[in-house]
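Researcher: We plan to redesign the surface later, but first we want a full-length starting point. C-alpha cells attached.
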C-alpha cells in the first residue's frame, strides 16, 4: 500500500476550495434527497456541466458530496411525512415515520444520520483496503448470478407482508405485473393499452410518491374530518444523543451487517441501493429478538436501511475505479467526469493516477463527517416540517409531489400516476394489504427480467443457473427462505389455534 499517495490525496482534498465543493455537494445532495422526485442522481447529472472547468479531484469531490448527502437526505421526508425522498429510503419510512408519529422525530433522524455516517465510513474503508479484491469477486457475477440474486431479493416479500402472507404475495405479484408495462428488454411493447404514454413503462418514483405519499395524505385528510381525532404530537427538535448512542450500541450487529450488505450489493453493477436497503432491512428483522416491533418504530429498521444505502456508495465505487464498470447511474456520471478530463478508469488508474484514485477514498471518508455536520445543523429547520398544520401541509405536499413527478420526464402522465397510485394505496390500506411488497416487485422486477433475458441470449438453456456456483448459492438461499417462511407461518397459525 503506497501511503505516500494517500497522504497526497488527503492534502489535495483538504484544500479549502475542495472542502468547499464537498460542503456544497453534501448540502445539494441532502436537499435533492429530501425532495421527493428529485433524486441525488438527477442532482449529479445537473452538476456535471459545472465540473468542466474544474480539475478532476475537485469535480469528483463535488459529486461525491452530492452522492453521500443524497443517499442520506431521503430519510428526512420518509421520517417526517411518510413520503420516501428516494427509492432506497422506502425501508427507512417503515420505522422512521411511526417513530416520528410518536413524537420522536429527533431520535429517528438522529439514528438515520449516525447510521448513514457509519455506513459511509465503512464503505470508504472497504474501498480502500479491499477494493480490488471485491472487484474481482464482482467480476464473477454474470447475468445468471445477478438474476438469482434478484430472485432471492424478491423472496423478501414475505418479510414485508405483515400478518397475512397471502396478501403480501398478491401485492408482490401486483408490483411485478406493473413492472411489465411498456417495452421489454427485447424491445417488444406490451400492456400499454394503446396509450403512447405507457410505452416507456411506469416510473418507480411517481408510484412511490403515490403509494406511500398521497395515500398517507388521504388518510390524514380523514383525520382532519374526524372530530375525535387527536392533535398531532409535536416533534422533538433536538437529537437525544444519549438515547441514539444507546440504540446504536444495542443494534451494533445490525449496523455492521447492514453496512456489509450495502458494500457487497453496491459492488454489483446495476443492483442498486434500494436492493441493498430491502435486503438489509429483511435480514435485520429476521435476526431480531423483537421482530414483531419492526414496522412500528424500531431503531433497527432505521439503522439497517440508512447504513446499507450509504455503504452502497463505497461499494459502487469499487467496480468503477478498479474495473471501469459503473456500479450505478451516479457512479457512471462520475466516470464521465474522469473521461472528460482524459483519464481512463480501470485497473491502470492506480498506476497512472494514484493520487486521483486515492482521493476518491479520501473524499468519501471526509464526506461522512461533512454529512454529520451539515445534516445535524439543518435538523432544527427540517424537523419544523412536523409543526406545519395538517390543513396546510397536506395540499402543499400534494402540489410539490405532483411538481416533482412532472419534473422527472416533463410528462403529465407521471402526475396522473401519483394520483392513481395514491388512490390504489389508500384502498389497499383500507383492506390491510401491505404496500412494501408492491414496491419491491416494481423496483426489482425489471432488473430480474433484464438479467434473465441477457442470460438466455447467451445460452438458451437454464442449466447455467444451477451449474454456476454463485447462482446456485442464491437459488438455494431462495428455496431456504421460502421454506422457513412457510414453516414460520404454519407455526404461528398453530400457536394462535392453541391459544
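Model: Full-length starting sequence:
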Amino acid at each position: 500500500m503506497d501511503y505516500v499517495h494517500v497522504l497526497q490525496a488527503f492534502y489535495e482534498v483538504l484544500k479549502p476550495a475542495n472542502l468547499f465543493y464537498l460542503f456544497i455537494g453534501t448540502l445539494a445532495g441532502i436537499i435533492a434527497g429530501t425532495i421527493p422526485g428529485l433524486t441525488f442522481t438527477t442532482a449529479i447529472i445537473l452538476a456535471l456541466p459545472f465540473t468542466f472547468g474544474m480539475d478532476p479531484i475537485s469535480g469528483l469531490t463535488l459529486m461525491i458530496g452530492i452522492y453521500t448527502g443524497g443517499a442520506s437526505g431521503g430519510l428526512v421526508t420518509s421520517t417526517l411525512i411518510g413520503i420516501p425522498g428516494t427509492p432506497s429510503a422506502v425501508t427507512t419510512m417503515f420505522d422512521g415515520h411511526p417513530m416520528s408519529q410518536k413524537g420522536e422525530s429527533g431520535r429517528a433522524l438522529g439514528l438515520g444520520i449516525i447510521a448513514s455516517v457509519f455506513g459511509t465510513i465503512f464503505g470508504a474503508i472497504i474501498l480502500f483496503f479491499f477494493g480490488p479484491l471485491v472487484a474481482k469477486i464482482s467480476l464473477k457475477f454474470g447475468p445468471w448470478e445477478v438474476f438469482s440474486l434478484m430472485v432471492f431479493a424478491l423472496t423478501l416479500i414475505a418479510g414485508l407482508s405483515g400478518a397475512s402472507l397471502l396478501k403480501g404475495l398478491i401485492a408482490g405479484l401486483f408490483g411485478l405485473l406493473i413492472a411489465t408495462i411498456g417495452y421489454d428488454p427485447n424491445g417488444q411493447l406490451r400492456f400499454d393499452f394503446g396509450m403512447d404514454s405507457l410505452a416507456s413503462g411506469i416510473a418507480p418514483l411517481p408510484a412511490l410518491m403515490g403509494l406511500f405519499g398521497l395515500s398517507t395524505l388521504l388518510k390524514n385528510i380523514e383525520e382532519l374530518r374526524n372530530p375525535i381525532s387527536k392533535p398531532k404530537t409535536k416533534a422533538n427538535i433536538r437529537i437525544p444523543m444519549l438515547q441514539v448512542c444507546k440504540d446504536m450500541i444495542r443494534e451494533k450487529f445490525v449496523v455492521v451487517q447492514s453496512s456489509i450488505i450495502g458494500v457487497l450489493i453496491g459492488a454489483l453493477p446495476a443492483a442498486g441501493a434500494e436492493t441493498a436497503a430491502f435486503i438489509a432491512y429483511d435480514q435485520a428483522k429476521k435476526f431480531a429478538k423483537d421482530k414483531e416491533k419492526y414496522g412500528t418504530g424500531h431503531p433497527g429498521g432505521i439503522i439497517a436501511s440508512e447504513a446499507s444505502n450509504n455503504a452502497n456508495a463505497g461499494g459502487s465505487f469499487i467496480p468503477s475505479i478498479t474495473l471501469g464498470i459503473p456500479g450505478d447511474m451516479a457512479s457512471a456520471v462520475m466516470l464521465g467526469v474522469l473521461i472528460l478530463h482524459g483519464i481512463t478508469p480501470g485497473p491502470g488508474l492506480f498506476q497512472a493516477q494514484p493520487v486521483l484514485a486515492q482521493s476518491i477514498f479520501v473524499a468519501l471518508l471526509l464526506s461522512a463527517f461533512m454529512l454529520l455536520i451539515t445534516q445535524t445543523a439543518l435538523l432544527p429547520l427540517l424537523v419544523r416540517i412536523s409543526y406545519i398544520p395538517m390543513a396546510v401541509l397536506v395540499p402543499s405536499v400534494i402540489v410539490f409531489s405532483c411538481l416533482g413527478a412532472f419534473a422527472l420526464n416533463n410528462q403529465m402522465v407521471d402526475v396522473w400516476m401519483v394520483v392513481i397510485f395514491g388512490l390504489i394505496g389508500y384502498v389497499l390500506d383500507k383492506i390491510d394489504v401491505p404496500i412494501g411488497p408492491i414496491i419491491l416487485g416494481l423496483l426489482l422486477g425489471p432488473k430480474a427480467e433484464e438479467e434473465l433475458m441477457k442470460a438466455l441470449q447467451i445460452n438458451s438453456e437454464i442449466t447455467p443457473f444451477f451449474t454456476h456456483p454463485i447462482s446456485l448459492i442464491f437459488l438455494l438461499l431462495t428455496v431456504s427462505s421460502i421454506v422457513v417462511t412457510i414453516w414460520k407461518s404454519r407455526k404461528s397459525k398453530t400457536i394462535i389455534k392453541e391459544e
